[in-house]
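Hey team,

Filing this mostly as a record. A colleague (T.K.) asked me to run one chain through the structure pipeline before their review meeting, and I want the input and output archived in the tracker in case anyone asks later how it was produced. No errors, nothing strange. Just documentation.

Input sequence:
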Amino acid sequence: MATASGVGSIALPQRPDWPARLAALHAADPQRFPALLASQSAGTPRARWDLLLIGNGEGFQGGAGKPLRDLEGNALAGTGFLDLLSARWRESRAAALKDCDVPPSTDAPMPAAFRGGWLLLLGYELAGEIERKLRLPDNRDGTPAGLALRCPAAIVLDRQEQRCLLIHEAAAEALAQSVKAQLDSLDDPVALPPSVPDFDIEEDEPTNFTDGVRRVLDYLAAGDAFQVNLSRGWRLRPRLPEGESLDLASLYRSLAGANPAPFAASLHGPGFHLLSSSPERLV
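Output structure:
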């Protein structure tokens, strides 16, 4: 059945272990499945969806005065991440509208949680591309100020309706069929308790935070600001035997299981991995 938006879907078998299967796919093949956005709490409309995003290999990173590069590290013209994102989005949008004339396969009603597009990681440093007068500190953790990954398909788990769909843009039907074959051959995930090593911890100087709180109170009293976000950095280095690497999937399970926050996320980027557990999901 064709859809006006040029989006198709494949109904996947009902099974209770879909959250574990999505996490296993992300861990086993992070190039194809670069990000998992999960709802850890059930029973609320906002915590209804899990999305395992499917990339097609396109994307770029950089910005905030740093060189723009593709996912292989090749230099791109310009330094404006947001300008390039706007141009690439218009290109992909025009292509998607053109593909609306090609009826995609649709064998199930589709939720509004996903229609294709781009996965974005946007750092605070990118504010300098909008407000040029800002003097922002450099990011010290090695992640890019901006990352954009083209994701024309996703596996969408509806926790409320207890169903799972593979949703794809019309032009990505071949990619979706390839993912469907990969799902059909996937072994059942083994439920193992998370194994987390000990860490050496380095934290920011406490007075940096408390001094910031005092300045914020002054800003609020003067009417210069109405909301200010402060953070305090913690840097952890795992204690691992020589030659052993950190089990990120296990660390993600431990973080998501121990934190009562309703949302969790795992993102595999070029040269870095980001894990998150948060009370907010900002769109």
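Quick notes for T.K.: The chain has a mean pLDDT of 86. Residues 81-98 form the longest helix (18 residues).
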